[in-house]
Fold this protein.
Amino acid sequence: MKKNQIFSHWRKGLTPWGKILKTMKVFTFLMLVAIVHVSASSYSQNSRLSLNMKNATIKDVLMRIEEQSEYRFLYSDSKIDVEKKVNIDLTDMKIEDILNTVFDGTDIGYRIVSRQILLSSKSESSQVGQQARSVTGKVTDSSGAPLPGVSVVIKGTTNGIITDADGNYSLANVSTDATLVFSFVGMKAQEVSVAGKTSINVKMEEETVGIEEVVAIGYGTMKKSDLTGSVSNIKAEKFFIQAPRNVQDLLRANAAGLNISIATDAKAEASLSIRGKGTLAANGDPLIVIDGVIYEGVLADINPQDISNIDILKDASSSAVYGAKSANGVIVITTKKGKIGKPIININSNISIAHSASQPEILDAEGFLKFRQDYNEGRNSETYLTKYPQIFTNPEKLNGVSELDWYNYDQTVPATSLTDSQLTTKWLSRLNLTSPEIDNYFKGNITKWNDLVFQNAIQQDYTVSVSNATDYTTQYWSLGWTDREGIIVGDRYKNFRARVNIESKIVSFLTVGLNAQFASRNEGFLKCNWSQMTMISPYGSNNINDLQSVYRRRPTGLDPVNPFYDNLYTDRKNVSHTLNTSLYAKVFLPLGIEYQLNYTPHYNWYEYYNHYSSDGELWKSTGGQSTRTTSKSFNWQIDNILRWKKEFASIHKIEITLLANAEKAQYWSTTANATKYSPNDILGYHRLQAGEVQTVSSNDTYQTGDALMGRIFYSLKNKYMATASVRRDGYSAFGKKNPHAVFPAIALGWAFTQEKFLTNIKWLNYGKLRFSWGENGNRSIGQYAALSQMGSSLLPYINQSGSVYTTSQIYVSTMSNYNLKWERTASYNMGLDFSLFQNIISGSLDGYIAKTNDLLVNRALPDITGYGSVTSNLGQVQNKGLELSLDANILRKRDFQWTASGKFSMNQRKINKLYGDMVKIKDDAGNVIGQKESNDEANGWFIGQDPDRIWDYERVGVWQIEEATTASKYGCQPGDFKYKDQNDDKIMNNKDKVFQGYKTPRFRWSLRNELTYRNFTFSAMIYSCWNYYASFQRAANNYSFPDRSSDYDFPRWTKTNPINDYARIGSKNIGTNWVNNSFVRLENISLSYDLSKSILQKCSVQALRFSISIQNARTWAPDWNFWDPESGSVTPRTFNFGVNLTL
């Protein structure tokens, strides 16, 4: 069999630099070619528009130009007639040509000032007041910093100017009775009467932060100011300098209430949850929606560079439109679209180096021998050690014992003379070292296994995208390639990703579009068995093919083993290809009604081939072993959506959304196995028929669903808002008595700062109260959980003659439950949105309580039924919590800006009900005084307690020598962990277990600071979890094979070191050692530099950014002394260099 090439070199260090240099050469060449072939021009020169409008008002034309470009129009309605109707059909024209055509035959004149177009009456603009004069002044922001680029225009004319770098302006020919209009992006426009003054200074005020932003909600979008539910929004572009590897990196620590675990391997996958887990056994993952349709793929297939925005729907009102799939919250991803103007080419490149972030020390050669000495001294009795003093001590360190007496302790024939070599060999033999280890000891051969299993990993991510938009078509295309090594040798992940978003206006009433994503993943790389590094001896040979080496795979499969041995005789293929598409059509009907049809097919092809060679000792007895699995799935959804928006009398706003949905999912798989290859297994899984023993299995499944949904939103004066929705879901997996369920929701909003009695409160810029209630469902069960299922196997059979033989039989394997129904989560949410102190501080505060009923669990059945368990509905779990999000514009100067954002969340969970079985409550005299619902001690579920509450023995130290007699009553000895006997009956059982801490954090917080100085941007993110505990059993020092294992370099109890935090080697441990796991992590540090626009314009480049970042820079955990406190395992620290080029 051909050996896996990845293990042909075991090293610590960088992948050959030639690979990186070659990649950089290709990238540089492409960048130079792109630069040479793009002509230099300014925005106004390059901006070309296309318009085709019939019988449209000039106002409509101006609005269309603003939609398609970055131009903004300034004019006075009283002096400019914009209601005149015109016909226009222009293609790829400059803005000047378009305006000349639009204003032909009118009294409208214009003047272009940067990207603002000033309109005026030709007759008035030709006249200058007799008392005209010059007006000068300075424009600043709310903090007093000068504002360059502010537009200053004489109202009703085209006479205007832009403030200079110091915020100063000087405007000539201003009449004494004129009015000046000051405008700037992100600031409130101001009108100031000249009134004869020659100097006018203006302080601009920021627009209320974020309230006009559009966020994605279920089956539509909405202004943030209109939201009545709890929704968090993340702008992806803001975090691109952190070099996100996937969606989870964009989300982590950036939204209150959204919890993302830390990634540990090359694939960088992480788990997600919103507002805690509302179930006991069913899936608790949030629903993923991309571009308005439910996403059936995996997050690893989504290129983060394709993402524009992410909205997290957290309360029931926001997510109820997704009904049975939304009990765990919804994450809505909006991908990028094209923008009006010339095609934009974006090239993004990230190259990273990763290494182990927190690695506990491992015993070196000297420490390993001391470990063996302590183990052997600890496992022998005091009588034995008294009889043979210092028997396990290095003969070079004997004190008061002669070398000859020491050597003859276990000699059948006493020796009369000794050499140093004999003494050392005797000592090492007593420490259970084998002959190959002893030989390596004398030769000085030491293997540092941790240096072999860990590496400095090279990670590469590249994305190229092209986007563009015209009057008729919007398009975005991208290709992405990921090739990442993990920090453990052999760990690797590759993914090719492609996306196309295209939308075309066929006719005025019909628009069609396609959003498609393809991904091809390769996960067939073999990661070495790195955990063996703490078990294998530093004197073990690293030569796998050395048959005399003790540290290779034993036929029994027992540890320790060379970390690379198994992979040397393993061949694997693990690839998958997915295609997610969404085809849609929008029809614009009379009366403002919009109809949308979505067809969303999802395809997946998966191949898993694996062969264990008979050359490997573990598989010799089976003659080689192969598996070949192929599967495919095809899911589709169809959405029929009607939307209607209407505004009445400028104060009433109504939006109605109706949905009819249907879906189907199918899955097919086939698995073939072979063993006992003959004459050999050199072809492995490529020729299964060479195996004498062959088995084949297959599986086909399908499921269907349907839904009806209606939602209505009403706003009065943009002050009072209400949203109501109802969804009816059907799903084939539930019992025939409950195939459908209805999920309603309602929400209210009050923008109280628009009330007159609050208008004089200057420090309060914006405030809105929100209240919502709603129900969501969870249908995350197997397709056939409600049905009796058939199984088959070889079972003994006795014929009429009494002969016994085996035959394949079919039987009922599971019990049906026709009453099975949906999990239902009813939740309340109260929220406050606010903006304070001239919008310097803004944020939101939310409190919630959610109760999940009819939990989906597998309930154990008595043996008499013939079944082990049945899927049932039972119990109730409650989540309640608090979330706070804060954003602050701390400093805003001309060349320096400082912004900060903080997130805080806490969630408490408890079980209110379980099975409903009641038990009697008795007093101390044995009298029945009541009853209560019974707990499930086997699963650790207790009424009134958090499912993550620790229920265990209370550790109170380590048994010491003077406590040997008492320890023996519990089957322990000095050096073992001591647990409290709560009732002092000298028996440790469930009666001695008590409630202690929690396994999940009680609260989480994050803080992000971003500082911009000219073209430099620096950001730093801190993330923290507090008040929770994790198991640290390593402190018990009770290994499976302490007679031949190495270990981490932890303290250990000995007679001369009677500590209370660590036990003796090989201790007996009856409980769990829980340690406070709270930590503070410097999650990310990033620094970027944007090349000056003046330089880029000479090269016809729009933007060029260089960035460096460190992911998982540092972690502080005061009570934790092992691997990463969050993952409990190895985690990478990643150094990234990125280049982003826009043409």
User: Anything to note?
Assistant: Residues 1-42, 126-130 have pLDDT under 50 and may be disordered. The radius of gyration is 36 Å. The longest strand covers residues 652-677.
